[in-house]
Design brief:
The chain has 457 residues and is an alpha/beta fold. The protein folds into 3 domains: 90 residues, Rossmann fold (3-Layer(aba) Sandwich); 206 residues, Mur-like, catalytic domain (UDP-N-acetylmuramoyl-L-alanine:D-glutamate ligase); 132 residues, Protein-Tyrosine Phosphatase, Chain A. The protein is 30% helix and 24% strand. The strands form 4 sheets. It has a 10-stranded mixed sheet with strand order 8-7-9-6-12-13-14-15-16-17, with helices on both faces. Strands 18-19-23-20-21-22 form a 6-stranded mixed sheet, sandwiched between helices. The longest helix has 16 residues. It is globular. Reutilizes the intact tripeptide L-alanyl-gamma-D-glutamyl-meso-diaminopimelate by linking it to UDP-N-acetylmuramate. Its cofactor is Mg(2+).
């Protein structure tokens, strides 16, 4: 684009989501004029965007389009009937989905490293991205969170490598394929596969089909990395696979293998083809993060980074905001903010914390906010996922679509509360004793984080 040309104007609907906000930052780096609208324009995403010269509009209105943008990128949270979507269609404006725009304008001619799976995508993508950065590769990236080593969720990068969180959620109201079908990774991590996103997938087989579509796009000279224990991923690969596959394991059979030196996963040895590669001694815990690390090390090796250099990077990895992030430490209480919102993620997070803190008291507080949770799909598994907590409180807001008291049939350490004030009082009552309070939600949880910071401090 020459200096005489007017920059193309892209307008993004749903701009404050982590994916669309990241896409906006990349478009701005490419020289586009970028604006966007959202129902909830608030920090930190609004601040991150406005600092980059991106104009934000609060609420979806037809008049947001009066500047007649050259292209409208429509997020997957918007449907027919939305006034701004209707205006796009009625005015005949050009529109596309976020994943398609990214594929056509950014990922072409890039070596894409994609991280897919029901759990651990954001953390593993951040690990892999940091390994590349630490080793001088200067990758582009788009991550569904803010990795603390970078402080931003996306950038264009300065190399031929692009690291992306490959989400199985759909693209837009007019494209119901999974986002990752657009990305065509050369290096693909398939972390795991479970039933989730019950609002768009009828059953597990429907998700497997989308993962199979992803596998069909990976070149024969590429690489697929997956845990040896993941049965549902293996079933996807049995549908057809044309790409070499390497498998990871902890104290089992696998191309890449970890041997735990600490049961909480904070220290472990790494082996490749039974050859010792070195030791990881880092800040993270949980066996799930050991698997994430093995996958990131294997993916980095595929582009030429030695395992020893990848492990050196992991020792300085700072994880992602809202992944076991300590937000308060006061009078014996430690409060963690964690994004876990699926029973398996909740279980593995609590297991890692239990191994780290021993017999200390753990109080788990869960907001069932994801679409799958709100539909009551995981009733029994949610109850059982909280077994490592001494006490668990599940928040029941007024608009939840099912009665959480069903959980009480499956566990005796659970309380149901519909009042955030009562939850805060319960946490404050623990002051003076040793207690680890784990807040788990993929939303704002009614502002409980800010309240606890203020009241405990």
């Amino acid at each position: 684009m020459s200096s005489q040309q007017k920059p193309l104007h892209i307008h993004i609907l749903g701009i404050c989501g982590t994916f669309m906000g990241g896409l906006a930052l990349i478009a701005r780096e490419l020289g586009y004029t970028v604006s966007g609208s959202d129902q909830n324009v608030y920090p930190p995403m609004s601040t991150q965007l406005e600092e980059q010269g991106i104009r934000l509009m609060n609420g979806y209105k037809a008049e947001n389009l009066d500047d007649t943008p050259d292209l409208v990128v429509i997020g997957n949270a918007l449907s027919r009937g939305n006034p701004e979507v209707e205006a796009v269609l009625n005015r005949g404006l050009r529109y596309t989905s976020g994943p398609q725009w990214l594929a056509e304008h950014v990922l072409q001619n890039k070596w894409v490293l994609g991280v897919a799976g029901t759990h651990g995508k954001t953390t593993t993508t951040s690990m892999l991205n940091w390994i590349l950065e630490f080793n001088g590769f200067k990758p582009g990236f788009l991550i569904g969170g803010i990795p603390l080593n970078f402080g931003i969720s996306a950038r264009l990068g300065e190399s031929d490598f692009f690291v992306i969180e490959a989400d199985e959620y759909d693209c837009a109201f007019f494209d119901k394929r999974s986002k990752f079908v657009h990305y065509r990774p050369r290096t693909a991590i398939l972390n795991n596969l479970e039933y989730d996103h019950a609002d768009i997938f009828e059953n597990l087989d429907a998700i497997k089909k989308q993962f199979h579509h992803l596998v069909r796009t990976i070149p024969g000279e590429g690489l697929i990395i997956t845990p040896a224990c993941e049965r549902h991923v293996a079933e996807v690969l049995e549908m057809g696979c044309w790409t070499p596959v390497v498998k990871t394991s902890i104290a089992g059979e696998g191309d890449w293998r970890a041997e735990l030196l600490q049961s909480d996963g904070s220290r472990f040895e790494v082996y490749f083809a039974d050859q010792h590669q070195g030791t990881v001694d880092w800040a993270l815990t949980g066996q799930h993060n050991v698997y994430n690390a093995l996958s990131a090390i294997a993916a980095a090796r595929h582009i030429g980074i030695a395992a020893a250099d990848a492990m050196l990077a992991l020792k300085r990895f700072q994880n992602v905001k809202r992944r076991m992030e300590v937000i308060v430490r006061k009078d014996g209480i430690t409060v963690y903010d964690d994004f876990a919102h699926h029973p398996t993620a909740i279980k593995t997070t609590l297991d890692g914390l239990r191994k780290q803190v021993g017999n200390d008291k753990i109080l788990a507080i869960v907001e069932p906010r994801s679409n799958t949770m709100r539909l009551g799909v995981h009733t029994e598994s949610l109850a059982k996922s909280l077994a490592e907590a001494n006490q668990a409180i599940i928040y029941q807001p007024e608009n939840l679509g099912w009665d959480l008291s069903q959980l009480l049939q499956h566990a005796d350490n659970i309380q149901i509360r519909s009042d955030l004030e009562a939850i805060i009082d319960t946490i404050k009552a623990e002051a003076g004793g040793v207690c680890h309070v784990l807040l788990m939600s993929n939303g704002s949880f009614g502002g409980i984080y800010q309240r606890l910071k203020a009241e405990l401090n």
